[in-house]
Specification:
mainly beta; Tachylectin-2, Chain A; five-stranded mixed sheet; five-stranded antiparallel sheet; 38% strand; globular
Amino acid sequence: MRRPLGSGRSIALAVVVAVLVAAAGAVWWSASGGHGSASTAATALELSGDLRAHDPAIVAGTAGKPWYVFSTGDASVAKGAIQIRTSPDGHAWTAAGTVWDAATEPAWVRTAVPGVTSFWAPDIHLHDGTYYLYYAASTFGSNRSVIGLLTNTTLDATDPAYAWVDRGEVWHSTPGSTDYNAIDPGIVEDADGTPWMAFGSFWGGVQMIRLEWPSGMPTDPSVPPVHLASHTVPPNAIEAPTIVPRDGWFYLFVSRDLCCRASASTYNLVVGRSREVTGPYMDRSGADMAAGGGERLLATGGDMVGPGGESYSNGYLAFHFYATHLGGDFQLAIRKVAWGADGWPVLTTADEQRADAG
């Protein structure tokens, strides 16, 4: 049969176009992690100055206001008090001392948890003009731990009203009687303005209790915590919960696997979401985080080893990582979170996505 003039060229052109479209689609899918548009990428802030912050709790300044980061203490500085760093713009960071000094620390903690050398993993929450600073105290390998609270009406140390007030113990865990670890507090308010505190590490995983304003304390200490998330791979390493409300969802970010091992750390960030603050939190595949689910968002890559210990403020996620160029010492990182059209957060940058796709 005789073909119409030009039909061979048309077919060949159609084949070429189809191949190019398929290739472009493959690149788009790969660069997005198979989860959205390749243009959906987080933005890593370029940081300078004093960046040696572990488990950072960020306050991202808005409308020209300063930024703050509170972080785990160093045993050699003010007996391990929670550290403070400030920035005028979120990029250049300066050490600004500690929340307390050796003379004004919450002394009750050392009685509650003998052997404490530093105070860990703070979280800060603003409610009705008061800053609530939660922190943890423990020793490595033990779940004899406490979460404490201090409050302040300002973060500006030059303000005459600046004063951190010790409010005492919020929650504790005891070896042999509790199957969880009371460290790594993370505060969130639900749609009604009720505060909740997520916490936990290893043992029974991530838990949650209900708090109340204005005390910032549990509504009923006799009510057991709600279980939110576990890591079912031994040694069941999961901690550092941060819950972000957005568009009718609550997103639970957690750090899994092992921190604090310099360049050998395996920390990574995962997420799930729920319509209710108390869960269940499901990943994109529908797996429950309480049974080991969780979608990975960020892991070791290049100079960045073991990212985790995260917090969230005004669209920015702060975390620490272990820098290979510093011999595995820890550093502060801050990223503007991107959100895909499907509602899921993205923490990888465009460069990281291209590297993964390559």
